[in-house]
Design brief:
Blueprint: H1 10-23, H2 36-39, H3 45-49, H4 52-91
């Protein structure tokens, strides 16, 4: 039976956080246009024209992803510091 290994490191956490942030980089800057001219007189047209809520939702989602990325980095640094402390204690340094 093989043993599972846990690896923590600041570099790994930063790489994961950067990957997460890149995946959502375009959400916050997305600008949706109104289709009011094309939907005039069509039932439900005003609902389709209300893109503000969608834009706000995408910006909020981007903020959430950035917050998660920051948390990943913080956790990675915390684990890395804990690993260094334990290593020093075990090696008597």
């Amino acid at each position: 039976m093989s043993r599972a290994e846990i690896y923590s490191g600041a570099e790994s956490a930063t790489a994961q956080a950067n990957t997460l942030e890149r995946s959502a980089s375009s959400f916050g800057g997305m600008s949706l246009q109104s289709i009011s001219g094309a939907s005039a007189g069509i039932p439900g047209g005003t609902i389709h024209d209300s893109t503000t809520a969608l834009e706000t939702g995408l910006r909020t989602w981007t903020d959430l992803i950035r917050s998660d990325a920051d948390a990943i980095q913080t956790i990675g640094l915390t684990f890395d510091d804990a690993d260094q402390t334990l290593t020093s204690m075990l090696l008597g340094m």
